[in-house]
Amino acid sequence: MLTEALATRFARIALSNIGRAYPRHIQHFAVDASPLPSQRELHPAFYGSYDWHSAVHMHWLLVRVLRLYPVARVAPQITDALDEQLTSEHLAKELAYFRSPAGRTFERPYGWAWLLELQAEALRLKSRWSGTLQPLAEELAARSADYLRLSPYPVRSGAHGNSAFACLLALDYSRTAQDTALEFEIRKSARRWYGSDKAAPIAYEPSLDDFLSPTLVEAALMREVMEESEFFGWLQRFAPDGFAALAEPPTVLDHADPKQSHLDGLCLSRAWCFHRLGNEEAAQSLVEAALPHVAGGDYAGEHWLASFAVLALT
Q: Rounded distance, CA 211 to CA 269, Å?
């Protein structure tokens, strides 16, 4: 579904974003009145793309495009950009930030999960960047396992805190990196949180700033952690009437609004979930509804939507 032309278009968006320092949304836990260093000083690898997590998944986009189209005309530009950004020195500073007081819960769990997914893609590519990413990935993998073990309940929102989405990305990393401890905690937590769920409240989706469907990401995760026969029994209880209502594209009246533009991403993440759940017709329809809004509009969406388009299309 992701043609070379489309992959190149998205890669060029990512290349322009990862080095774009402003506008920037700053998330930082201050412990005193000291002046805040620039984001490029604090996050030399991931200072662009409006916020830290978007910078991470724009880097993921570039690594995935490079893996899928290694001889595309844009490939040398991708390689040069990743060599510039993902250096040992830059990643060491990112790790130091996470180990500082400001970094204890920084970007938990969404940013953590995307960093792990970036490393999973770097490992699949067998790239040199997997080596520079490894210390930070191992730190966040261990933290993720602890976080899951100590969380009595999931976060069921349709935005960054969602537990099921973070688990899906982290599960991909755990299998690619053969991190059996993390995979164990994901499997155990998913069953503890969602195993007895019934009658998902599909009628209440979406909320205005959702870019994830709580219902669909939960179902996609349970398909990964259950045997097929067990999963379909669970699914009949969880969504007895199916997911047809979630195959309809959400209404977006203001694509330039930073929160409402999340709904464009919701189309794409729903498509990704429908693909994982075996409904290709719904996935294709949602992708077609969202693609016109991935680029060429306001930076509120352009700083991140291309990565969700690549996720949906691959």
A: 7
Count other Cβ atoms within 10 Å, centred on residue 313: 21
Residue found by looking up tokens 């993921």 in the block = 60
User: Considering the chain, what is the average pLDDT of its residues?
Assistant: 97
- Among 72, 14, 73, smallest CA distance to 308 is for 14
pLDDT at 1: 84
Instruction: Give the CA dihedral 67, 69, 73, 76, nearest 10 degrees.
Output: 10
3-state secondary structure 135-158: HHHHHHHHHHHHHHHCCCCCCCCC
User: Tell me, what DSSP letter sits at residue 245?
Assistant: G
| CATH for 220 | 1.50.10
pTM for this predicted structure? 0.97
Answer yes or no: is 75 within a domain. Answer: yes
Count of structural domains within the chain? 1
Q: Is 270 exposed, middle or buried (0-12, 13-18, 19+ CB in 10 A)?
A: buried
Closest CA to 7 of 307, 304, 284, 300: 307
Q: How far is CA 259 from the centre of its chain?
A: 17
Distance CA 27, CA 107 (A): 8
**Distance, CA of 154 to CA of 192 (rounded, Å):** 9
Contact 158, 211 (CB under 8 A): yes
